[in-house]
Each structure stands twice: as C-alpha cells, then as structure tokens.
Amino acid sequence: MNPCGRCTMTEPHRSGCPINLTLELLGDRWSLIVIRDIIFGNRRYFRELLTRSEEGIASNILADRVKRFVENGLLTRTDDPDHRQKALYSLTEPAIQLVPLLAQIGAWGRRYTPATRELSVRAQLLEEGGPKLWAAFMDELRSIHLGAPSKGRSVIATLQSAFERAVGESARSKARK
Q1: C-alpha distance from residue 95 to each of 7, 22, 39, 58, 108 (Å)
Q2: Helix (H) or strand (E) holding 102
Q3: Which one-letter DSSP state was computed for residue 97?
Q4: Residue 7 burial (10 A CB sphere; 0-12, 13-18, 19+)
Q5: Which of 12, 43, 86, 177 could crosslink 80 through cysteines, CB 3.0-4.6 Å?
Q6: Stretches in the chain below the pLDDT threshold 50
Q7: Are 27 and 65 contacting, i.e. CB atoms less than 8 angstroms apart?
Q8: pTM of the prediction?
Q9: How many distinct helices (H) and strands (E) make up the chain?
Q10: Helices 155-176 & 117-146, crossing angle to 10 degrees?
C-alpha cells in the first residue's frame, strides 16, 4: 500500500500531487474507457470489455488495465461460479466515486468535441441531473457491484433507454437521407 492506504501503486511517482497520482493511475488513453464500459455498459467480463467497446481496445492492453485496476483497488476479480475460466469484475467504492469525474468529462466533451448525439445522450442526462442523479447512480452501482441494498429507480435503465432512443432517432434520420 502507498502512504494514502488506498491503492498499491508501487512505481516511483513524479510527485505526491493528487492530480498527478490520479493521472498516473488513470491518465492513459484506455483506462477511463475501460472504467466507463464497466460503469455505463455493465460489462463485467473480459470478453465483454474486449468485444463490445466502441473504441476497439487490444486484448493485451485490456489485460494490463484490468490487472492494474485490481492491484490498485479499483476493481475486484472473482471467479465465475458457472464457468471456471471466466472472471467477474466488480467496481470498488473508489471506482464508483469516479462517476462525478466521468460526468464532468462527458459534459466537457459534449461542449468542446464533435461528439455524436447517440454517444453523448447519457452524458447530457448526467450533466442535467447533476449531483443528485450522480448519487443515485452511484447507489445503484453499489447495489450491483458491492451488494448494497437497492435504493430506488434505475438510473442505468434511464440512461440506457435514452441511448437506445438516440440510436433509433439517428438511424431513422440516416434512412430519410
């Protein structure tokens, strides 16, 4: 464990700055994509993360990120009781606490990048819902990944429904052209 007592990052650090340390753990081009796919896509198996990502991550990179997240306490790995060769990955509380960060990154990306409507609709809902929606979403993730009691409506279902509507609207719009 490092002095913060929360993760096991063992390599020497450039500094003790919390932003630097966070970027050392999450700042490469794939880490937040993997976390995003687990949080928003409920992709909890390696194969799902590998084959269902929009960005097409390579298997060796995915294996490295998942291993690093387990070692640093962002994910837990448990053997799937139905299939000996499969592992189920679950978010830990520190990973669930990334929801506000991802919501802010998504909001920034909607404003300053050429994001598509269908892939930004969840970011829009999270931005509009603000901290209250983020808290409900994190509670739902705690229920799914940590076994905490469920506390109400499904934010995941709301976000997925909005995404599916946006995809349908986009397909209808393209068909008319």
Answers
A1: 11, 12, 9, 22, 20
A2: helix 99-112
A3: T
A4: middle
A5: 86
A6: 1-4
A7: no
A8: 0.87
A9: 8, 2
A10: 160
Residue with tokens 């919501």: 103
Residue 57 neighbours by CB distance under 10 Å: 19
Confidence (pLDDT) at 17: 94
Considering just the CA atoms, what is the radius of gyration of the chain in Å?
17
Comma-separated ranges of CATH 1.10.10.10 domains in the chain: 14-91
Taking CA atoms, 69 is separated from 111, 122, 135, 142, in Å, by 29, 24, 23, 17
Between CA 141 and CA 156 the distance in angstroms is 9
The CATH class of the 14-91 domain is mainly alpha
Q: Cα–Cα–Cα angle for 18, 64, 82, nearest 5°? A: 115
Of 135, 138, 141, 54, nearest in space to 90 by CA: 141
